[in-house]
Sequence to fold (512 residues):
Amino acid sequence: MKFKADEIASVIQREIEQFESRIDVREVGRVIEVGDGIARVYGLSSVMSGEMVEFSGSAGKATGLAFNLEENSVGVIILGDFLSINEGDEVRSTGRLLSVPVGDAVLGRVIDPLGNPLDGGGPIATTERRPVESDAPGVAERQPVNVPLQTGIKAIDSMTPIGRGQRELIIGDRKTGKTAIGIDTIINQKGTGVKCFYVAVGQKESTTAGLIEILRKHGAMEYTTVIVAGASDPAPLQYIAPYAGCAMAEYFTYNGQDALIVYDDLSKQAVAYRQISLLMRRPPGREAYPGDIFYCHSRLLERAAKLSDELGGGSLTALPIVETLEGEVSAYIPTNVISITDGQIYLQPDLFFAGQRPAMNVGISVSRVGGAAQVPAMKKVAGGLRLDLAAFRELEAFAQLGTDLDTATQSRLDRGYRMTELLKQGVYRPMHVTDQILSIYAGTHGHLDKVPLKDVHAWEEGFLKFVHEEKQGLWQKITESRKLDDEAAVELDQAIAEFQNRWAGQKETVRV
Fold:
């Protein structure tokens, strides 16, 4: 068999042209000690803070995050099962920062903070990833909040309105309905184009499963992603969960869309961060939290913004939840988060157990920017509602002394009771903003003064049904213009009068 020299030359020539020298240079270290979700590693001298590292032990590969850079060793928090890592295992640096999958593929899914699916729906089909930690937009990259984000809850949309790009804290004791407000808001975004993210940190997995079922039942899972770091998950996963959820939401924000994220809750994330910091021997401060706990929350919540038109005008609205103990709003974490956010909705246990739901304390609750984003019609009908309710609370306390009241005071008290009743709302039943406007208008203009207290909700339900069936033109007019001008107000008064006559007739028939 003869070889052709020119063929051999051409093959060698092609191989030389296609030759690439690939040298894989990685630092390799060893585990000195491991336990409680952290590992101390020796030998990774040029690893970066926040860099991903890989443990390759006998039980397979695990991932970690460089957390403490010390003189002779590196403190690594282990993301996942730390029981598979042993002393002496090899650790490699990756040169990559922690990132999560982003894009439309994550919508409708239940995932862990690393982007692994938990819903049995197969892998997440996306090639796009985003770093978990990223800089918040600067002052020049933002614009004022001026577009409303409706929660569908009358008490909130009328008195502490939320705008797209705002950070509104939901604060209160356990079992006062904090999560319900977040879930109601997500359900109310149906058909608005707002992408929703719910981050469950340190919650019971049975509770989270129930919430996912509620979202699915209301058709909200189509545009919602649930990120779960349950109570049984390691502290490092609970710590990074809000940042991972924020990164997924930011993808839509920086693509000119609107996103909403609910952090449930940041007090449990702070506890996880305290646990990691103490294990890493970081010096403890007040309540044993590390000194940078404020920065931990501020760098997360500052990422919520309404972006400038040059950056696409997208928005990220954050609803952080913080749990208080015995109503202690002046504790360390609550005061920190209150100072970072643009207002708070304070839920009071006494009101909750008295049947006032949502149990919002009107005196302490405030929205620092939402008023600028409120629907003009709502601003007009609910402008004095907060002051009226505050005055009613004072009068109510005075009336309990048992003194005789004049007619004017008694009528103000009666209206206050009816407005309080009107603002009660069942869970997972958000209302359209126009329905809220009609309802509050009827209450503030005295149309409910003659309606017995126990019949207020039946009257409201009947009135809204009447408007939808017989006064659709008026409803459409207010919805499209978002204003309640004099002409619309006259038309609305006539509609209420017409319904009042019908209501009185029905009551007479029932009595006979």
About this structure: Residues 55 and 61 are 6 Å apart (CA to CA). The mean pLDDT is 91. DSSP finds 16 helices and 16 strands in the chain. The first strand starts at residue 28 and ends at 35.
